[in-house]
Amino acid sequence: MNRFHRKRQPSLGRIAAVTSQQFDADQFTRATRPLEQKGFSVAVVSNTNAMLTGRTEAGQDVNFVPASTVGEMEFDGYCALVLPGNSHSIGESTQAALKKFLGDGKPVIALSDDVPLLAEAASSPDIADAGVAISMNGKVFAARGEAASEEAVEVFAQALAA
User: Fold this and answer.
1) In this model, does residue 8 exceed pLDDT 90?
2) Measuring CA to CA, how many Å separate 155 from each of 6, 135, 149?
3) Would you state the torsion angle of the CA atoms of residues 114, 104, 42, 21, taken in this order, to the nearest 10 degrees?
4) Cα–Cα distance between 160 and 156 in angstroms, integer?
5) Quick one: DSSP state of residue 11?
6) Are 15 and 137 in contact (CB under 8 A)?
7) DSSP 100
8) DSSP state at residue 137
């Protein structure tokens, strides 16, 4: 027996996190860590299959190899979508994925620069200037301010786990 082998908890579901090259690693972590802590598996999807590099505020590089491209993503394999802040640079494929998740009634959370994408797709222009927005059960909620954004991410994770 390998004494270093860790027993993994069963996943509550798989969540797609869309990001692109040169992503903000701190923001990505703030958006996904609460979901992983609740028992969800987070898969990175992007506009490329190549390794993605992000940077923390402390100047450290963080690398991910995407599970798939946004265009090749198997939507049925995901229970929710996370747009952590720089998915807007991917463009049309992110917008198409977002519309598919909303159309299927699956929860979506968008942070920072990605909130306008959710506002447009959900026909909720009044939330475009929010720091974070959530679409859940056919309703769209927005939070403004840094503390409110962190709370919203935690509430999103709790609601998915319930």
Assistant:
1) no
2) 28, 12, 10
3) -40
4) 6
5) P
6) no
7) H
8) T
- Alpha helices (H) along 38-122: 92-103, 115-121
Mean pLDDT of 135-153: 89
5's CB contacts (< 8 A; 6+ apart) are: none
DSSP annotation of 158: H
Report the relative pairing of strands 23-24 and 14-18 from DSSP bridges.
unpaired
User: Which residue in the block uniquely carries the two structure tokens 């972590």?
Assistant: 29
Q: What is the pTM of this model?
A: 0.90
Q: pLDDT digit string (tens) for 28-68?
A: 999 999 999 999 999 999 988 999 999 999 999 999 899 99
- Give me the helices (H) in 10-114, please: 25-37, 92-103
Q: What share of the chain is helix, strand, coil (3-state, %, to 5)?
A: 35, 25, 40
Which residue, among 92, 95, 68, 74, has the nearest Cα to 83 in the 3D structure?
A: 95
- Confidence class of residue 9 from pLDDT cuts 50, 70 and 90? low
Tokens of 11: 């996943």
